[in-house]
Every structure is written in structure tokens, then in C-alpha cells.
Amino acid sequence: MLAGDLYRAGGPELTADALRADRLLRAYNATGAEESEKRGAILAELLGAAGEGLMLRPPFQCDYGFNIRIGRGTFINFGAVFLDVVPITLGDHCQIGPSVQIYTADHPRDPDLRREGYESGIPVRIGNNVWIGGGAIILPGVTIGDDAIVGAGSVVTRDVPAGSIVVGNPARPVPRRAPPPV
């Protein structure tokens, strides 16, 4: 699975990993805002890396957790779904809106292989200081460069260069606006 090869998600080793993630996610999603220490301990056990100052607002869902690495000072709003069959990496100081979905899971184009239950995964990489608007969907294999912005509701099917803004379905680049006068 981690090598990007086809696999069957129902195998015994993956089932155990998924059950572990489910147990930790139920505990995390049941915490209150005043339980930041408990949340931090659960995330430290669930995720591959959780940077200092990470704020991840429940509910949160993922496949395994250990394939997710999140940098310092990143904020992830309510309802995020990360399908982490292979690595998902978020840099430092990212802002992730509500209901954002990041997918690494993919399926064969061959209908016979799909019918047999095969899947694969392609990593997603998100740079530093990236803002992803609410309801955006990031598809397998996408890399989003530092300082980029993804508009709310966008479906990102291709790499996003550093410093650019993309919007729409499929997400396409738009020009940056001049900042308002100070």
C-alpha cells in the first residue's frame, strides 16, 4: 500500500490499523474544547507527526492516522476527512477550512480489478502557509506549494504552484488581487 501498489483494504493488518484509528478518533471526537491536553495526547498517538500549536477541531476522520504529518501552527476546522492510505503531509502555519477532504486513496481504472476490491494510494503534499477554503477536495497525488490559496468548494485535480490561487471544479488559477490599502 505505502509503495503505491494495488492492495485490498480488508486485509487483517490493515483492519487492525483501521480499528486502532477508529478507537482513537472516537476518543478525540468526544473531547471538549477545554480538553486541549487530552486532545494533544490523542493526536500524538494517532498521527505520524503533530507539530507544536496544531489545532484540529473535531469531528475529524481518517483511515489510519499514522500516514498524516502536520506542521507547526496549523489550524484544521470542523469536519475534515483525510483518507490517508499513503502519506498526507501538511506544512507549517496552514489554514484548513471546515469540511475539507484530502484523498490519497485511488482505484484501478480496470473494472475487473475494482470488482475484486483493489485500491492504491498516491501521496498528497501541502506546503507551508497554505490556505484551503471550506469544502475543498484535494485529490490523490496533488502537491500544493507554499503560500498557495485554494478557494472554498474547489476540487483540486492538479498540482498548485507556490504562491498561486486556484478556484472552481476543477480548480484553475486566478490572478491575485491587490491588497486593500492600509
TrEMBL record:
GO molecular-function term, one example from the UniProt record: O-acyltransferase activity
Keywords, comma-separated and alphabetical: Acyltransferase, Nodulation, Repeat, Transferase
UniProt-listed SUPFAM superfamilies: Trimeric LpxA-like enzymes
GO cellular component assignments: cytosol
CDD domains (alphabetical): LbH_MAT_GAT
Maltose/galactoside acetyltransferase domain location: 1-52
Superkingdom classification of source: Bacteria
Keyword Membrane (UniProt): no
Protein name: Nodulation protein L
Record lineage: Bacteria, Pseudomonadati, Pseudomonadota, Alphaproteobacteria, Rhodospirillales
